[in-house]
C-alpha cells in the first residue's frame, strides 16, 4: 500500500475506534453510516445484507453467498445494490487489533439514482466510442 493510502487507512481506524467503544454496529452522525467493531473472531451468522457499501479497515471477514465464499480484509470492500442473503464470519480479530469496518446503507431511491448515473456514464462512453470509430474510418 502506498504511504498516502496507509495514512488514510490509519485515520479511518482512529475514527472507528473513537466512535465504537464496544463490539457491534455503531450508528454515526451521518445518516446510514455505521462503524463496525468486533474484538474476537466469530462463529458463522446468517442474515441479509441491505443495499450498501462495506469496507474493512482492520481484521478479516468471510462472506458466503450461496456456495460462493468471499474473503475480505484490509481495504477490501463489498457493494450490494440489492438485498443479499449471506452467512458471515469474522476470521481475524483480537482485543489488541479488533476487526474494524464501515457500512454505508443505501435507500431504494439512492440505489436507483446510482444505477441511472452508471447507465448514463456507460451510454456516453458508448456514444463517444461509436463516434470515434465512425470518424476514424
Automatic annotation (TrEMBL):
InterPro entries, per the entry: Tscrpt_reg_HTH_AraC_N
Keyword presence, Glycoprotein: no
Transmembrane feature ranges: 113-131
Domain Transcription regulator HTH AraC N-terminal: 29-115
Superkingdom field: Bacteria
Parts forming coiled coils: none
Keyword Transmembrane helix found: yes
Keyword tags: Membrane, Transmembrane, Transmembrane helix
Protein name: AraC family transcriptional regulator
Amino acid at each position: 500500500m502506498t504511504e498516502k493510502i496507509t495514512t488514510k487507512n490509519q485515520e479511518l481506524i482512529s475514527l472507528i475506534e473513537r466512535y465504537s467503544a464496544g463490539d457491534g454496529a455503531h450508528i454515526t452522525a451521518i445518516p446510514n453510516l455505521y462503524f463496525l467493531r468486533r474484538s474476537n473472531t466469530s462463529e458463522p451468522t446468517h442474515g441479509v445484507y441491505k443495499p450498501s457499501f462495506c469496507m474493512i479497515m482492520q481484521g478479516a471477514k468471510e462472506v458466503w453467498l450461496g456456495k460462493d465464499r468471499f474473503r475480505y480484509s484490509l481495504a477490501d470492500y463489498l457493494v450490494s445494490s440489492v438485498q443479499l442473503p449471506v452467512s458471515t464470519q469474522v476470521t481475524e480479530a483480537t482485543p489488541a487489533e479488533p476487526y474494524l469496518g464501515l457500512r454505508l446503507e443505501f435507500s431504494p431511491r439512492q440505489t436507483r439514482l446510482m444505477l441511472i448515473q452508471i447507465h448514463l456514464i456507460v451510454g456516453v462512453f458508448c456514444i463517444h466510442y461509436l463516434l470515434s470509430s465512425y470518424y476514424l474510418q
